[in-house]
Design a protein that fits this description.
single chain; mainly alpha
Length: 256
């Protein structure tokens, strides 16, 4: 399998697997039990906490799709409760625990982790601050928890490539949201005030951006052989399905 074909499959496999744990009620529950602030402020010092104690604008820039003023408020509120370093460590642990709960028994867990590790170790951090932050979080021993954290790290890699493509395509974050499948629902959740632009006229531009994002992400998979890429694609899909079979109906927000 070529790198571009694998890159095209990532949002539906690794992306969905990581989204499952981010949206899981248990993630919010465990974060609250660990003393993290509820809602988006917790997310701002959790998933985004891997950026460290940097200026707030650095977090706003890396979050990308959120209304800048709204996200700045959430970061400030989150940091008033705990430091980004503390929040990131808690979120990484919750990610690992979700993997233990949802990938335990999946036969391809170790191999998926091995291949993901190869990609993570070789991928360029240029234009990918969230990826670099998650890459540098401590990993547990090989097993479901480690594999899940590596998949989350890869999700951030794909997110960063997509963000870069959006900027290169001359589209703003709100337009990118509205031209996507979630539209106004995500725009509101991401703190953007109404009225929203019509996403339909931007469909062609969105398709071009998706293509560029896949091309950028494809470079990340050059470290794998053709056979490894085909194996990785199948393992990622199987892991998504296996974890999904262990999930209960969830509620929550869909973070960018």
């Amino acid at each position: 399998m070529d790198s571009l074909s694998l890159a095209r499959s990532m949002r539906g496999s690794i992306g969905m697997l990581a989204m499952h744990w981010l949206m899981a009620p248990s993630t919010n529950e465990k974060a609250a039990a660990a003393g993290m602030p509820a809602g988006i402020p917790g997310y701002a010092v959790g998933r985004l906490g891997v950026l460290g104690d940097c200026p707030v604008d650095n977090v706003v820039g890396a979050a990308f799709f959120w209304n800048p003023e709204y996200m700045a408020e959430q970061v400030t509120a989150g940091r008033a409760v705990m430091s980004p370093h503390e929040g990131a460590a808690i979120f990484a642990r919750i990610c690992q625990e979700w993997g233990q709960d949802h990938l335990e028994g999946f036969e391809g867990t170790l191999r998926l982790g091995e291949l993901a590790q190869k990609v993570v170790d070789a991928a360029s951090p240029l234009g990918a601050p969230m990826f670099a932050g998650w890459r540098d979080q401590a990993l547990p021993e090989p097993g479901p928890g480690r594999t899940m954290q590596l998949c989350q790290t890869m999700r951030e890699l794909g997110f960063s490539r997509f963000s870069t493509a959006v900027m290169a395509g001359g589209m703003g974050p709100l337009e990118a949201i509205m031209s996507g499948p979630t539209g106004a629902w995500n725009a509101e959740m991401f703190g953007w005030p109404k009225p929203y632009p019509d996403g339909e006229p931007m469909a062609d531009a969105r398709n071009e951006i998706e293509a560029v994002a896949n091309q950028l992400h494809a470079v990340d998979f050059e470290v794998l052989t053709d056979d490894e890429r085909a194996e990785f694609r199948q393992l990622a899909k199987d892991a998504r399905d296996y974890a999904g079979s262990k999930m209960t109906p969830s509620s929550g927000f869909s973070p960018g």
